[in-house]
Amino acid sequence: NAGVTQTPKFQVLKTGQSMTLQCAQDMNHNSMYWYRQDPGMGLRLIYYSASEGTTDKGEVPNGYNVSRLNKREFSLRLESAAPSQTSVYFCASSEEGYYGYTFGSGTRLTVV
Amino acid sequence: GDSVTQMEGPVTLSEEAFLTINCTYTATGYPSLFWYVQYPGEGLQLLLKATKADDKGSNKGFEATYRKETTSFHLEKGSVQVSDSAVYFCALRATGGFKTIFGAGTRLFVKA
Asked: Which residue has the higher pLDDT, A42 or A16?
C-alpha cells in the first residue's frame, strides 16, 4: 500500500541512550517532516526537509538530528535521550503547494 | 506568526446530533486550510481542505467553508455516528510554504 512507513512502532529507552527513528515514503513526494505529539500540545514540528539534500529546523529541534538519506527516506536521531523526549513521533510527506500531508502511523517512544 | 485556534474539547454528542467544531486562524496572505482526523492509535488522516476564500471542502459527510472575512474554517457534520469518535485537527499551510501549522486538536466522543 502506498504511504508513509515508520519503524519502530514502540520503543523504550533509558536516559542517555541513542536511537534512530526510520521513515520512508513511496509517493515520490519532495517534502518530508518529523513532528512530535504531546497531550494538550497538538503537533510540533521538529525538523523538515523541503527536498532531497536539504533539512531545516522546526519549532522544537533541540536534542534531535535528521538525515534525508534519499528522496524516499528521512530519519530522526536522538543522540542522548531524555525523559522530556517521551512522546509520539510522526513522520509525514507532501508535495509543495496546497496539498495536505500523508502521515505515518507513529512511533511511541518512552524514555525512562 | 501564523497560528490556528480551535475549540477545546472534549465534545460529547449523541448519535445523529449535529456537529460543529470551531476553528479560527491568523496568517498573512492566503493560506490553504485543512481538517485532519486522528483515530485512536493511528496517525493523522487528511479529512478535507480548502485553498481559497469561499471554497467548501467536504468528505464523508463533513464540511468546512473557508471564510476569509472571519478568518474561520469551522468543521460541521449534520448527523454524527459513533465511528466519528476521534480527535480533529484544524491546520493551515501558507501559500508557497512547506510547513503546516496545527491546532491543538478537539476530541469528539459520540454516544450510541
From this structure: A16
